[in-house]
């Protein structure tokens, strides 16, 4: 027979003042039942058995517990946490699903990232089953990610909730975020919260970087590989007192050797020099938290034929590519905290950036300039209790672009004010529902409405189902997002009806189950997502000697299903196996004006990933091995049966990565290999013998361009 435990939870300060503490959580261990404290500080839980522990917690306060032997009324007083926290060592589970998140979200921790060299963001997903990374062409070295079957332009990428890889930065942006700066990566599939903006269409990536108050006093990472690349990363942090701290993060990398493994006369990898520096500050009190920082990077790239020299070669006779990029960014994040009301808060995010890029593809010149400003004001609170919470706010985006290509100039200024609201319903340990809406006013594209919904259902013990539905949209940056297409002799054919708007609905479901095999933990995750475009910018490579750009004339969709199994068969041994299926297709214009539906070129329908990770006791030795199998993919019709590409589809292939790490007291060494079996695409550059002829094309890339690479490095830390 159920009986009732009741009580009142109050905050208690050093002066003896007490105040009701709504929003605190109470949990009765024997019955595994919990509840939320109401606005009057009262709680009530119906229980079946005695005795047992009753746990009381609230954000910003010291937890408390009470031994309960019978039904009765309790007075509980919680004290605020000390402003100075003692050191806590957190041992994270690598690459795990975020059980608490309402979205289908995976967290890549530092332990996950350390399984590979992870020199920058583009190399952070080698052991991840959901994200693929590919070269956009065989000359520039630019990379792009793919999520749910679509390119990274449809993924909202942020650094600590500040917009990051977008605009002109989208060309080489994946290379600009050093891996050692990253503390974790939150990878969400499907629609993200309306609080974060309107550009998420297939998912969101948010990176947390090294913080001034929690980073090592000094950190050094040195790296070198067999292909002539090396880099040095240094981080230093200093606490002035319990409130103010700062950190300086530096990165330098260089590709110094000209490599031509396939003997086609072109460098397999571009030569580059990259310098990236960031300084950030943090000021935290009981009621305020302020973070601010600025960063600057400078990069030069050089590629093309082996004999190309930027100062001496004739660009009409020797094919060369060059790029010079400079970027400045600054941000500020201000939060007003309410220690006795942890459900309440006000936050303001501000950022600004200036980006410039000058490039050439042989005799074809490009110049781009971008100035951006972003602001996001967020207020959150609750209705009655923390079972009903809400967020509301306003955002503003300013983008000014000036671009020049050949003899054409393009300039535009975008102003996008917006407003949003989001409501969350929580039935503890059973169901969570979030519904959000935002409306944005684009000065060129008009008013846009973005509805989004998320749900999480705890079906049974260790069974969780998630669902999401929503819309996203974006304004296309045609040159920056397709820079690799300039590395060919095709001409650009732009349709007169071209609409720069892309808009899509995305919906999906995810089911996860935690269980044991014997006495060892296992996890199974299945998800399915579909993206249906209402407006899409088509980049059509199906016509010989031309790249056509036009608005989608019909249906365009992307379907993605994935199943992932995680298991620890032995102590300190982790095993991940995943299979992904993708069906991505669009209607294209045919030569005679008819429509034809084609699958997306260069996209593998099937992908398998297996990762094994083993660590000896105390992590003194760590061993990691990853196998990726990529299925066949379609080659654009433009070159099928021409002799240059005799096959309709590119073959399936495997990639193997491995790494061994030895840890010492303050430092560790690692040795690894990528592309162990040295598989490369045999003809990544078509017409390489005569790059100024009509048949030259470096954009038909479907596999690895460079062969086997061995690397080594060390990490040194002073905590």
Walk me through the topology.
Layout: E1 3-12, E2 18-20, E3 25-28, E4 33-36, E5 42-47, E6 52-57, E7 64-68, E8 73-78, E9 104-109, H1 110-113, E10 131-135, E11 143-147, E12 150-151, E13 155-159, E14 162-163, E15 182-189, E16 203-209, E17 218-225, E18 229-239, E19 244-255, E20 271-284, E21 288-304, E22 320-337, E23 345-361, E24 364-383, E25 385-405, E26 408-427, E27 431-442, E28 446-460, E29 463-475, E30 491-494, E31 501-517, E32 520-535, E33 537-540, E34 546-551, E35 556-570, E36 573-589, E37 595-599, E38 606-615, E39 621-630, E40 633-634, E41 649-650, E42 653-663, E43 667-674, E44 709-718
Parallel strand pairs: 1-8, 13-16, 30-34
Antiparallel strand pairs: 1-2, 1-5, 3-4, 3-6, 6-7, 9-15, 10-11, 11-12, 13-14, 15-16, 17-18, 17-44, 18-19, 19-20, 20-21, 21-22, 22-23, 23-24, 24-25, 25-26, 26-27, 27-28, 28-29, 29-31, 31-32, 32-35, 33-34, 35-36, 36-37, 36-38, 38-39, 39-42, 40-41, 42-43, 43-44
Membrane topology: Multi-pass membrane protein
Protein name: TonB-dependent receptor plug domain-containing protein
Domain TonB-dependent receptor plug: 101-203
